[in-house]
Amino acid sequence: MAAYSELLLASENATLRNQVRVALIIAAQAVYTEDSGTANHAARLAWAKATILNPTAVVEPMLWAVLAQNAALTLAQIQAATDAAVQTAVAAAVNLFI
How many whole angstroms separate alpha carbon 78 and alpha carbon 85? Predict the structure, then answer.
Protein backbone atom coordinates (compact mmCIF):
# COMPACT_ATOMS: atom_id res chain seq x y z
CA MET A 1 0.00 0.00 0.00
CA ALA A 2 1.40 3.37 -1.00
CA ALA A 3 1.91 5.84 1.82
CA TYR A 4 0.40 9.28 1.37
CA SER A 5 3.87 10.70 0.79
CA GLU A 6 4.34 8.14 -1.99
CA LEU A 7 1.00 9.08 -3.57
CA LEU A 8 2.14 12.69 -3.53
CA LEU A 9 5.37 11.64 -5.21
CA ALA A 10 3.42 9.66 -7.81
CA SER A 11 1.29 12.73 -8.57
CA GLU A 12 4.45 14.48 -9.72
CA ASN A 13 5.50 11.64 -12.04
CA ALA A 14 5.59 13.08 -15.57
CA THR A 15 5.03 9.71 -17.25
CA LEU A 16 1.93 8.97 -15.20
CA ARG A 17 0.62 12.50 -15.73
CA ASN A 18 1.05 12.14 -19.49
CA GLN A 19 -0.65 8.73 -19.47
CA VAL A 20 -3.64 10.29 -17.70
CA ARG A 21 -3.73 13.19 -20.18
CA VAL A 22 -3.89 10.83 -23.17
CA ALA A 23 -6.39 8.56 -21.39
CA LEU A 24 -8.61 11.61 -20.84
CA ILE A 25 -8.67 12.37 -24.56
CA ILE A 26 -9.53 8.76 -25.36
CA ALA A 27 -12.28 8.74 -22.72
CA ALA A 28 -13.67 12.01 -24.08
CA GLN A 29 -13.73 10.58 -27.59
CA ALA A 30 -15.61 7.54 -26.28
CA VAL A 31 -18.26 9.87 -24.86
CA TYR A 32 -18.73 11.41 -28.32
CA THR A 33 -19.47 8.00 -29.79
CA GLU A 34 -21.84 6.78 -27.09
CA ASP A 35 -25.56 6.48 -27.66
CA SER A 36 -27.48 9.75 -27.29
CA GLY A 37 -29.82 7.92 -24.91
CA THR A 38 -27.03 7.52 -22.37
CA ALA A 39 -27.99 9.00 -19.01
CA ASN A 40 -26.79 12.59 -18.56
CA HIS A 41 -25.65 12.65 -22.20
CA ALA A 42 -25.70 16.44 -22.63
CA ALA A 43 -23.49 16.96 -19.60
CA ARG A 44 -21.23 14.14 -20.75
CA LEU A 45 -20.81 15.79 -24.16
CA ALA A 46 -20.02 19.13 -22.52
CA TRP A 47 -17.36 17.44 -20.38
CA ALA A 48 -15.91 15.68 -23.41
CA LYS A 49 -15.69 18.89 -25.41
CA ALA A 50 -14.06 20.79 -22.54
CA THR A 51 -11.62 17.93 -22.02
CA ILE A 52 -10.59 17.75 -25.66
CA LEU A 53 -10.20 21.53 -25.88
CA ASN A 54 -8.05 21.74 -22.75
CA PRO A 55 -6.93 18.37 -21.37
CA THR A 56 -4.29 20.04 -19.20
CA ALA A 57 -7.06 21.64 -17.13
CA VAL A 58 -8.52 18.28 -16.13
CA VAL A 59 -5.36 16.24 -15.72
CA GLU A 60 -4.74 17.22 -12.09
CA PRO A 61 -8.12 16.24 -10.65
CA MET A 62 -8.27 13.06 -12.74
CA LEU A 63 -4.74 12.13 -11.69
CA TRP A 64 -5.81 12.27 -8.04
CA ALA A 65 -8.87 10.14 -8.78
CA VAL A 66 -6.65 7.55 -10.47
CA LEU A 67 -4.21 7.59 -7.55
CA ALA A 68 -7.04 7.22 -5.02
CA GLN A 69 -8.39 4.20 -6.92
CA ASN A 70 -4.96 2.60 -6.79
CA ALA A 71 -3.80 3.58 -3.30
CA ALA A 72 -3.67 -0.07 -2.30
CA LEU A 73 -0.80 -0.62 -4.73
CA THR A 74 2.84 0.13 -4.01
CA LEU A 75 4.51 3.20 -5.44
CA ALA A 76 6.49 0.98 -7.83
CA GLN A 77 3.28 -0.63 -9.09
CA ILE A 78 1.60 2.75 -9.59
CA GLN A 79 4.57 4.12 -11.48
CA ALA A 80 4.74 1.01 -13.67
CA ALA A 81 1.08 1.22 -14.66
CA THR A 82 0.36 0.23 -18.24
CA ASP A 83 -1.54 2.47 -20.60
CA ALA A 84 -4.45 0.02 -20.42
CA ALA A 85 -4.52 0.16 -16.61
CA VAL A 86 -4.49 3.96 -16.64
CA GLN A 87 -7.23 4.04 -19.28
CA THR A 88 -9.40 1.73 -17.17
CA ALA A 89 -8.90 3.92 -14.10
CA VAL A 90 -9.71 7.10 -16.01
CA ALA A 91 -12.83 5.54 -17.53
CA ALA A 92 -13.96 4.47 -14.07
CA ALA A 93 -13.58 8.04 -12.76
CA VAL A 94 -15.13 10.00 -15.64
CA ASN A 95 -18.56 10.22 -13.99
CA LEU A 96 -17.01 11.92 -10.94
CA PHE A 97 -16.29 14.95 -13.10
CA ILE A 98 -19.47 15.15 -15.17
Answer: 10
